[in-house]
Structure formats: C-alpha cells, structure tokens
Amino acid sequence: MQNERKKLEELNLLDDFLFNAMMTYPEMGEKFTRKILKLLFNKEFRNLKVIAQKSYGGLNTDLRGARLDVYVESDDSAEIDASEDVSIYDLEPDKNDKAKYIAVFPQRIRFYHAIIDSRSLKSGEDFGKLKRVYVIFICNYDPFGYDRVKYTIRNMCVEEPEMPYDDGAQTIVLYTKGTKGDDISEEFRQFLNYMENTTQTNAVNDTLKDIQKMVDIVKRDGEVSLSYMKGFERDTIMYEKGQEAERKNTERERQRADSAEKARDEAKKERDEAENVRDEAEKARMIAEEEKIEAQKKTAEALKRVAELEKILQCKTAEIK
Predict the structure, then answer these.
(1) Which of 20, 82, 102, 287 fits a disulfide with 76 by CB distance 3.0 to 4.6 angstroms?
(2) Short-list 78, 83, 99, CA closest to 44
(3) 138 vs 83: which has the higher pLDDT
(4) How many CB atoms within 10 Å of residue 142?
C-alpha cells in the first residue's frame, strides 16, 4: 500500500522536496546554501552556483546516469583572499535506509564521484584543472554502524597511510542521530537534529532561527505548494501505473504458474498412462511365459506318455512272436 504523503507543512529538510525547494528559492537559495556549507566546513562561501536536481545522463543509452539532489559550484578563486580553487559540493539528504541500499552505499558514493569527475574536465584540459569534489550525505540512518556523527572518507595509500595523497575527492557522511565525535560542536549537532526535525522548537540557535524563517516563507509560497501537489499527482500516477504493471505481472505469473501446473499434470498423466501400459505389457508377458511353460510341460508329459505307449507296444509285439 502506498504510504500516505506528508503535508507540505510537515516536511523536514531531510525530505528531498523541501531541501531542493530551499536551495533553489529566489534570493534565498544561495543564502541557505552558504549557511549549510559554513556549518559543514566552518568557513564563508561567497561565489556559489546552486543547481537542484542536476541530472547527468549516461554516456550511452545503455549506461546509467545520475541525479544529484543539490549540486553546488563554489568559485572562491575570484576572491582576492581565496584559499582554494573551484570546488563542487553535492549535497544529498538521504533516507534510503533499506538493507539493499545500505549494502551498496560505498559503490553509490564511488559512482557519484566518477560521474561528476567525468563531466567536470573538458577534452584536452590538464588534470590539474580537475575540480575538487565533495559528496555530502546527510542521513537519518547509520550506513556504517559506528554511531559517528561524521564520517570523512578520502583515498589513501594502504602501505603508507601517512603518505600525502590528495586527489581532490572527499566524501562526508553525516548521521543525524550519531553520538560519537569529540570534535563535533553542539551547534552542528543541533543542525543535524533540525535537519531531521524541522520545527520552530528545534531552531535553538541564531543560525537555525534564520533558516526556520526561510523554511516558513518557502512552505507558505503558493507556487511551491502547487509544485508539491503536482509532484504528488505525478507520484500517484506513477504509483498507480506501477500497481497496474505489478497486477499485470502478477496475472502473467499466475497464468504461467497455471500453465506450468497444467503441463505438470499432463506430464504426470502421460507418465501414469505409460506406466499402466508397461504394467499391462509386463503382465501379458508373464502370462505368456506361464502359458509357454505350461505348454512345454504338457508337451513333455505327452512325449513321455507316447514313449511309454511305444514301450508297451514293443513288449506286446515281442510276446506275440
């Protein structure tokens, strides 16, 4: 059964729709994004280009593409006091806590990095121009099971763990309910709780209160509400199509099962008939064998009687002489 859809006012920032609506809302998206990135990296971000639901098609029709929830390009190199070059931040609120998704979580991260890298360097460009990429997951479940608030993942040399190896790729996984992490500030923990439970009550510091004001504006916006309803209708249609397809598949499977059962019954019937034929043939053979033995016995007895009669006849002939 389809889960009942939340009302717009009940959505949290961990819900894709609200998070993307916040990121792309006119005159507010960049401000919201800056606050998120500042909380994550403890630095100011100035020149941002925010793209919600950025899609990368497969390089061929038979290759998989990807849809990134929020794709952010930061070009602080334009600032005189910049400390780093162009970077890409892929922000992914994630609630896919089913075991089959958790099992392939590392491969999913690998794929996101690969597909971003494959499109961020033009043909002939030097590898030194490859952008730094940060893939950031904010999860309401722990994909690794260590109860950490923050998992920072980079490539490294196994034989020399201390060897510098900066390929510009980094993954940050945030667990909203995590408890471990001595270097995690209280403000950051409050932010993660707020992501999962976006209410006035949980907006407990100035940054979150500013964000809550933005959330209230977005939730009251008629166009956002209309977009949410259209999305709901679209999802409902897709769900109903899926249900119909599932019903048809179920019917086909039932017909296949019935056909298979009928074929099994027919095959069993044929086997039984063949077995009966074999039994009858064996019975006839045994009867014929018995009759043959009986005939041979009678023939032997008849020959014996003939021999006896011939002997008697010979004796009578001898007496007459």
Answers:
(1) 82
(2) 83
(3) 138
(4) 18
What is the C-alpha separation between 215 and 221, in angstroms, rounded? 10
- Residue range 258-275, pLDDT digits in tens: 788 888 888 888 888 888
Contact 136, 174 (CB under 8 A): yes
Strand partners, 91: 70, 136
CB 91, CB 138: distance < 8 Å: yes
3-state DSSP assignment of residue 258: helix
CB neighbours of residue 198 within 10 Å: 23
The rounded distance, in Å, linking the Cα atoms of 236 and 233 is 5
Q: How far apart are CA 139 and CA 192, in angstroms?
A: 9
Q: What is the 3-state secondary structure (H, E, C) of 174-242?
A: EECCCCECCCCCHHHHHHHHHHHCCCCCCCCCHHHHHHHHHHHHHHHCHHHHHHHHHHHHHHHHHHHHH
DSSP code for 52 = E
- Residue 31's Cβ-count burial label (10 Å; 0-12, 13-18, 19+) is middle
Length, in residues, of the chain: 321
Cα–Cα distance, 183 to 297 (Å, whole number): 108
Put the strands of the sheet holding 48-56 in their side by side order.
48-56, 66-74, 87-94, 132-139, 169-175, 150-154
Whether the CB-CB separation of 176 and 195 falls below 8 Å is answered with: yes
Residue 210 in tokens: 């500013």
d(CA 109, CA 174): 13
Cβ burial, residue 105 (10 Å; 0-12/13-18/19+): middle
pTM check: above 0.85: no
| Residue 50 near residue 24, CB atoms below 8 Å | yes
β pairing state of 48-56 and 66-74? antiparallel
Summarize pLDDT for 197-223 with one digit per residue, the tens: 999 999 999 999 999 999 999 999 988
